[in-house]
Automatic annotation (TrEMBL):
Binding site residues for ATP: 34, 38, 80, 85, 93, 99-101, 122-127, 173, 375
Acidic residues bias locations: 217-249, 408-430
Residues included from the entire protein: 26 to 647 of 769
Residue ranges, annotated region (Disordered): 215-258, 403-431
Keyword Disulfide bond: no
Taxonomy, superkingdom: Eukaryota
Protein name: Histidine kinase/HSP90-like ATPase domain-containing protein
Species this protein is from: Pelagomonas calceolata
Family label: Belongs to the heat shock protein 90 family.
Length: 622
């Protein structure tokens, strides 16, 4: 046999494998999802290669995954006819080159409580999950550009690679797991079928399971001679065909076991189906399958774009923030899988949608794009621009609907109360407004959108939410703000500051509170910057309460009262003097607001007689 070369795992990969192999994690079955997903990825890759290189599939025509097990050897084998790995790929991808997610994953898993191991796929290290159930793993792989090689490791900090003289794969990868003592459940075909079905539901390649089926067959006459005598048999046949008083009189049967490949999944693309025929649960599990996320999506939109460019798409908002969300905002694209005529072109097309929507996940499937060009050329294609615009519009529509749904859910609260009965209180606490859930996770993206996307700014503005002086635990939108404005109020007020406590206690807020005017709290560093791009909403100007020259709609009254008071005090010596001078001839001497150029004016008091009346009365005097 060819000599094996031994390699040390890269240090972080080693730590990762230690964690996995010693894990007490219960949900070990997730390894199958990872292996199937790698097979599917590899199949997508060869299908893409075949677009420009017709001969690529000559090494093996069928694109498929096959799963089999051997109870005696305690092995589980998963084979795909994907792109395969060269020797160099095996060495690099399975052990010596650590991915960026490796360290993150090790950190996430090594807390006191341990972490959720099923997130492994998200960190780009899903392959190693095979060591949850196996103490030795062998990978045989054939890539079109190399000879077939074998990789093997018992997770003892090293792995071996050698040229494989075993059965020819044609093309693709075969992974054999030597199952641990406690992993016997994966040698059970019903269990496997259940898992394969669960994890392959949305895989668009056929997945076969090698399984046995039992069949009851009638035993031929000559085989049962020893069981019965011929006379009795003849009687049976003369009487009736299907009713027997005595079991012994039934036709002799035996069970035979047939082993055969049986396709488990349906390969149908969920996005190609009519939205009205897809259940919520199907969207949720599809989302989890392709995104490798473990949480349900917050919301989604499934649509068919028509017109200039036709495509089908499902967009999702994740239920949790991806671990690398803001690591490198400017390098992170939305994870949209782009299919052109069923061929996966890429799962992260650069700039298909603007950066601020990079939390989106989904699929886009179009027949309108040329297949036979490089990704780079495709990138420049004008169709993509149109597609991107539609995707943005749909994404914003989805968010708008989510926000509206939240609002109408509030209205329905009473009905819900009745239906849900006793557990209500708990329910209510547990279930948060879905839009606010979105907002708390991805609100920053919307604010970035306000800055970056002037074309959609007004739509985005409606998606903004703020804490305010009257919002309590909740949030206010601009629409709600405007609805709650005082009759006389002309502007939308906000205060920017470090945090809610700081702005809440700001002296600038005193007057607004006294007037019952709502003030939006801009306490995210990006808020003030974003708000520069939103100068008004619904015709109402945005105004900071800390700026000089703060005006309320009703300030004439307020300001005048203030001014009067000030003048009164300043001129008190003069008015006192004049009152003394005129004595009883006048009721009072006061400062007037009504004169502009005339120095003095004699008026009657509000409650006294008018001057005209005085004149009349004097004429009648006795
Ligand atoms: P990810 O799938 O996120 O890249 P994995 O740890 O699951 O991370 O796999 C690591 C790498 O190993 C893959 O990126 C791929 O290059 C290679 N690989 C794993 N399984 C296969 C396979 N069945 N066929 C081809 N390459 C594979
Ligand atoms: Mg993977």
């Amino acid at each position: 046999a060819p000599a094996a070369e031994t390699f040390e795992f890269q240090a972080e990969v080693n730590r990762l494998m230690d964690i996995i192999i010693n894990s007490l994690y219960k949900n070990k079955e997730i390894f199958l999802r990872e292996v199937i997903s790698n097979g599917s990825d590899a199949l997508d890759k060869i299908r893409f290669v075949a677009v420009s290189d017709k001969t690529a599939l000559d090494s093996k025509k069928e694109l498929e995954i096959r799963i089999s097990f051997d109870k005696d050897a305690r092995t589980l084998t998963i084979r795909d006819s994907g792109v395969g790995m060269t020797k160099a790929d095996l060495v690099a991808n399975l052990g010596t080159v650590a991915k960026s997610g490796t360290t993150n994953f090790v950190e996430a898993m090594s807390g006191d409580q341990g972490g959720d191991l099923s997130l492994i796929g998200q960190f780009g290290v899903g392959f190693y999950s095979v060591y949850l159930v196996a103490d030795k793993v062998r990978v045989r792989s054939k890539h079109n550009d190399d000879e077939q090689h074998c990789w093997e490791s018992a997770a003892d900090s090293s792995f071996s690679v050698w040229k494989d003289d075993g059965e020819d794969l044609g093309r693709g990868t075969e992974i054999t797991l030597y199952l641990k003592e406690d992993a016997g459940e994966f040698l059970d075909q019903d269990r496997l079928e259940e898992l394969v079905l669960r994890y392959s539901e949305f895989i668009t390649f056929p997945i076969y399971l090698y399984k046995s089926s039992t069949e009851t067959v009638e035993v031929e006459d000559d085989e049962e001679e020893d069981l019965d005598d011929e006379e009795e048999e003849d009687e049976d046949l003369d009487e009736e065909d299907d009713e027997y008083e005595d079991e012994d009189e039934a036709p002799r049967t035996t069970t035979v076991t047939n082993w055969d490949w049986s396709q488990v999944n349906s390969e149908s693309a969920i996005w190609a189906r009519d939205a009205s025929e897809v259940e919520d649960d199907e969207y949720k599990s599809f989302y989890k399958t392709f995104s490798k996320d473990t949480a349900d999506p917050t919301t989604w939109i499934h649509f068919k774009a028509e017109g200039e460019v036709e495509f089908k798409s499902i967009l999702f908002v994740p239920g949790q923030v991806p671990f690398d969300m803001y690591d490198s905002y400017h390098n992170k694209n939305a994870q949209l899988r782009l299919y052109v005529r069923k061929v996966l072109i890429t799962d992260e097309f650069e700039d298909l949608v603007p950066r601020y929507l990079n939390f989106l996940r989904g699929v886009v499937d179009s027949d309108d794009l040329p297949l036979n060009v490089s990704r780079e050329t495709l990138q420049q294609h004008k169709v993509l621009k149109v597609m991107g615009k539609k995707l943005v519009r749909k994404a914003l529509e989805m968010l708008r609907k989510l926000a509206q749904k939240s609002e109408s859910d509030d209205d329905d609260e009473d009905e819900d109360d009745e239906e849900e009965g006793d557990e209500d209180d708990e329910e209510e606490e547990a279930s948060k407004d879905p839009y606010i859930e979105f907002w708390e996770k991805f609100g920053k993206n919307i604010k970035l959108g306000i800055i970056e996307d002037s074309a959609n700014r007004s739509k985005l503005t409606k998606l903004l939410r703020y804490k305010s002086s009257t919002s309590g635990e909740g949030y206010t939108s601009f629409e709600q703000y405007v609805e709650n404005m005082k009759d006389w109020q002309k502007a939308i007020y906000y205060i920017a500051g470090e945090n809610v406590e700081a702005v809440e206690n700001s002296p600038f807020l005193e007057k607004c509170k006294a007037k019952g005017v709502e003030v939006l709290y801009m306490v995210d560093p990006i808020d003030e910057y974003a708000i520069q791009h939103v100068t008004e909403f619904d015709g109402k100007k945005l105004q900071s309460v800390t700026k000089e020259g703060l005006k309320f709609g009703d300030e004439d009254e307020a300001l005048e009262a203030k001014r009067t008071k000030l003048y009164k005090e300043t001129f008190k010596p003069l008015t006192d003097y004049l009152k003394e001078l005129y004595g009883d001839a006048v009721v009072k001497v006061s400062i007037s607001k009504r004169v502009e150029t005339t120095p003095t004016i004699i008026v009657t008091s509000q409650y006294g007689n008018s001057a005209n009346m005085e004149r009349i009365m004097r004429a009648q005097a006795f």
